Amino acid sequence: MNVTELRGDGAIAQEYRWALPSVLLGDGRAGGRVRRSTRDWIVDILMFLFACGLTFLSLMDLEAQRQPEALLFVEQVTGALACAGVWLRRRWPVGFAVVTSLLSSYLDLVGGASVVALFTVAVHRPFKISGPITLLGLVTLAPYVALRPQTDEDRTWALALGLAFVLTVFAWGIVVRARRQLVWSLRQRADSAAEEAKRLERERIAREMHDVLAHRISMLSLHAGALEFRPDAPPGEIARAAGAIRTNAHLALQDLREVIGVLRHSASDGSGGEAGEGAVPDRPQPTLADLPALVEECRHAGLDVRLDLRADGAPEGLGRNLYRIVQEALTNARKHAPGAPVTVTVEGAPGKGLSVQVRNPLMARQGAVRHGARLPGAGAGLIGLTERAELAGGRLEHGPTPEGEFSVRAWLPWPAETERESGG
């Protein structure tokens, strides 16, 4: 099971959370084939040399004690096999630790491999497994101290040294395991943060595409519907409608090209540096000052709209959000209430916030005669506007009013500090 598979399901990832460092280090897991990385080979070689070094030191001590030849032969053979078994510690860590712990209850030369096995279990297994293994290692000190040392003083030193050694190795393994889990957790958080940033960027691009393209395409449909409804219109009106269709189609393609250019730039230049050859620069975003031009464009398209603008000097981000709200509201009015008069009221000041209300007669919205088929929609426009307003710290409401109108009302915060900054 690789990391990608674990990320695919949250429940599985949570279940294997504490085992992940072991998997990443090439742990064979239940006797499976071990795939060691370069780091794993270096660690295994160092562990093997460490076990051999402890075994050699113990062998020198045994020769100095002049142990029986038969016991010395058994010690040497068992010690050599235990050192060779260090290479199997990743495939059978628990079994190897149990066997070496039991053998070390009497044999000296198995001690090096037993230490390596205990450390491996402490690093690669949770406490519910490594704890009993460590307890077994402490229990095996009793028969060793009772059978091998020659004097009471030797037994006391052997017991104290054994307890300290076993507990130190276990504590060291626990610390290494905790550090690896911390690193893994930080990597997971970083990956999650990166994925969240990508998701938010995709949503932002989708929202911009909807806000811009829905407006352009609705203008195309409106002019095309007029041509379809009045094929006998004067040539001048047909020419103006055709020109408006061409202009809006060109602008829609330009907006789409810019969005695709941003996506390509993000895919080819993840560092966020300068765009490479062929990258499409971002077009200046609309602000509150562009709102009269938007209303005038809608008037040329045949929409009866009146603008009451009583705000000026709004920050760029604030003005852009309000522009998109008005743009989507006018697009919805053209879709659902063609021919109905629309009133746009914008007012605000620093410290009081910026508010907008777009309203049109409800009866016309529901029952007006439409030229051609009704414009299709995903029904997500007002939802997107609500999200946009909430992300900006404001609010948006929409629905019928007691006066028989459909109204879209939004309020966005306008901090008082911006007034002083712009004046300074």
TrEMBL record:
One GO CC term on file? membrane
Keywords from the UniProt entry: ATP-binding, Kinase, Membrane, Nucleotide-binding, Phosphoprotein, Transferase, Transmembrane, Transmembrane helix, Two-component regulatory system
What superkingdom does the record give?
Answer: Bacteria
Q: What is its EC number?
A: 2.7.13.3
**Where are the annotated coiled coils located?**
none
Describe the location of the Signal transduction histidine kinase subgroup 3 dimerisation and phosphoacceptor domain by residue ranges. 201-266
Q: Where is the Histidine kinase/HSP90-like ATPase domain?
A: 320-414
Asked whether the keyword Transmembrane is assigned, the reply is yes
Q: Which reaction does it catalyse?
A: ATP + protein L-histidine = ADP + protein N-phospho-L-histidine
Which named protein is this? Answer: histidine kinase
Classification of source organism: Bacteria, Bacillati, Actinomycetota, Actinomycetes, Streptosporangiales
